[in-house]
Write a structure and sequence with these properties.
By secondary structure, this protein is mostly beta strands. About 5% of the residues lie in helices and about 35% in strands. Bound molecules: 2-acetamido-2-deoxy-beta-D-glucopyranose (3 copies).
């Protein structure tokens, strides 16, 4: 073998090994966004409720077969975090003209000089965008955000925190961040909520599931507010079917057939954080009256205090299954993290930690 061949083999091997696999620390209150076949994770905390959070940045590569029983081999890879500050309780969305820019908003940030951070994914670099418009939105946690087709990120309500130099308060507004024009506007809203989960429906409506209201009460799961992004109006819908236990910090994933898969979360009783009675609930939005169902499924296997990755197979509506492997790549180009594709398996990938479990949805905790 001549030198040229050896060099070629060396280059080939070094390109294969250049990207070292990464083993993330257990966490909750991180945020995640899916671009192509990669789910990018940012921030989060390991213990307790508060904290400045992690500054690592990594992704899960869904084009590689996953076997969750082989923890060392789960295809997590570390990514450039230069310019990313440690954060937790932030939310994120995919924006920009080509839907390839990650926008992180609010939450705890070690360097809190900017409310928003932007990851330019094609160029693999973090930037601090200059966003026009006044007043500046209030930094908040326990909010939720979705980005529509026009690149507008809708961030409703949430709470301030003494950590941000502000007394606790529930914020009554809708921040609309234009991820293309880099400007924002703030609208007042008829009521406020925190720790609910937003789902963007195909018709431009945003459905809010769960959370707590201004009187700190857990809102009933059969009364769901909807924000019409086109007309800037609100209405409430009443669901049919069972009424699942109220919850906060769950994830909600809209799949292309109109099911919203709601997973996890907590319901506090006294001082105790308890998982809601039903681990997994499904809202059918293909029906004129949205309908809740509790699928027949084993409860999440021994999970609430581990750092495992969990995969839910939703391909058979009659039989949801927790699985440990995912062989086939997910081929869908997503623009919203909650729009997981379900050609094969997948919708809810979770990494759990301590008493919370956090999924890749836009929710903060799970
Ligand atoms: C920014 O961080 C500093 C130092 O931790 C803190 O005193 C201040 O209240 C924070 N301000 C905001 C708006 O988060
Ligand atoms: C929707 O429900 C909220 C409370 O959850 C209430 O404050 C609001 O007035 C309701 N809106 C309409 C249009 O009924
Ligand atoms: C959702 O509703 C549609 C229309 O009624 C129905 O065809 C479909 O089977 C339902 N899906 C589930 C999971 O119940």
């Amino acid at each position: 073998m001549d030198l040229k061949h050896l060099i070629f083999i060396f280059l080939l091997l070094s390109s294969i090994f250049a990207q070292r696999q990464y083993i993330p620390t257990p966490r909750h209150s991180h945020t995640a966004v899916m671009i192509g076949k990669k789910i990018y994770f940012k921030g989060g905390v390991n213990q307790g409720f508060d904290g400045l959070g992690f500054e690592d940045f990594f992704y899960l590569d869904l084009s590689i077969p996953i076997d969750t029983t082989q923890k060392q081999k789960i295809p997590f890879f570390s990514e450039n975090n230069e310019g990313l500050t440690a954060n937790s309780w932030s939310i994120s969305g995919l924006g920009g003209i080509n839907k390839d820019q990650i926008f992180i908003f609010g939450g705890f940030m070690k360097d809190n000089s900017s409310l928003v951070l932007q990851y330019d994914s094609p160029n693999k670099r973090w930037i601090t965008p200059i966003i026009n418009g006044s007043p500046l939105p209030i930094r908040r946690r326990e909010t939720s955000g979705v980005v529509d087709d026009e690149g507008l990120m809708y961030i409703w309500s949430g709470t301030t925190d003494t950590f941000f130099g502000q007394p606790f308060d529930i914020i009554n507004d809708m921040v609309i961040l234009d991820t293309i024009g880099l400007s924002w506007q703030i609208k007042s809203t008829p009521f406020a909520r925190y720790s609910s989960t937003a789902v963007l429906l195909p018709d431009g409506m945003i459905l809010y599931i769960g959370g707590r209201s201004e009187d700190f009460g857990y809102v009933p799961m059969n009364q769901l507010p909807i924000y019409n992004t086109k007309s800037d109006t609100w209405f409430n819908i009443t669901t049919s079917g069972i009424i699942p236990e109220s919850r906060v910090g769950h994830t909600a994933t809209l799949v292309p057939d109109g099911r919203i898969i709601v997973y996890g979360g907590i319901h506090m009783i006294g001082e105790a954080y308890l998982p809601p009675k039903e681990d997994l609930i499904v809202l059918n939005t293909s029906r004129p009256i949205y309908d809740w169902k509790v699928p027949q499924i084993q409860k999440m296997p021994a999970s609430r205090s581990t750092d495992e990755l969990h995969i839910l197979d939703i391909s058979n509506e009659a039989e949801y299954k927790w699985v440990t492997t995912m062989d086939k790549p997910v081929y869908h180009q997503n623009d919203q993290i909650q729009e997981y594709h379900n050609d094969f398996q997948t919708p809810t990938l979770t990494i759990s930690s301590q008493e919370y479990k956090t999924a890749t949805g836009p929710a903060n905790w799970l």
